[in-house]
Specification:
Layout (H helix, E strand, L loop, with lengths): L6 E5 L5 E6 L3 E4 L2 E4 L17 E2 L2 E2 L3 H26 L2 E3 L3 E3 L5 H14 L2 H19 L3 H24 L1 H5 L3
Antiparallel strand pairs: 1-2, 3-4, 5-6, 7-8
């Protein structure tokens, strides 16, 4: 008898070969037997690869939510700086304020300088994390949570970049 699947073949003494119904293959690994023909788990069995569920749905940890806010806030900074330079103006280090189509690339480089060298990404990231944790506490459904985190991160980053763009009006020329 073959345990590799297919049909079971029996040879009789008179030379006839009889094919019977398919045989269920059995794989033995250590002390575990698994039926290869029936690999579907019962509906009540938990999926070990699924995220942890609660009665309200998937609840990500606070650190995951916070990192989501950080990444969205910092991720919005570069494209928004290009848009700010195109539509309004943006301060570029060692150049001054630039605007228009010629300001797109310098404003993106400028926001990298302000973000990395002067710690602007830390400020935007901390504000994004605080906003994301607040949204997660107020809005527990994950689908709505994601949209609110994106929206608030966009608003935070836009506000920070706008403050940078009008800083000379607040503290004077620099």
């Amino acid at each position: 008898m073959s345990s590799w699947g297919g049909t079971h073949r029996t040879e009789h003494s008179d030379g006839d070969i009889e094919h019977q119904r398919p045989v269920q293959s059995v794989c033995t690994i250590g002390n575990t037997r698994r039926d290869k023909m029936n690999t579907k788990l019962p509906a009540s069995a938990p999926n070990p690869y699924a995220a942890v569920n609660t009665e309200m749905g998937y609840q990500p940890s606070r650190s995951n939510v916070a990192w989501t806010g950080v990444l969205w806030s910092v991720g919005f900074a570069i494209p928004l700086s290009a848009l700010m330079g195109l539509v309004f103006r943006f301060p570029v280090p060692f150049v001054g304020y630039v605007s228009g189509f010629d300001a797109i690339l310098p404003s993106m480089i400028g926001v990298l300088f302000y973000g990395v060298a002067l710690g602007g990404f830390i400020v935007i990231g901390v504000l994004g994390a605080i906003a994301a944790i607040t949204v997660a506490a107020i809005h527990p459904e994950q689908a709505g949570q994601r949209n609110w985190i994106r929206l608030i991160s966009l608003v935070i980053t836009t506000a920070c970049l706008f403050c940078l763009a009008i800083l000379d009006k607040v503290i004077g020329p620099w």
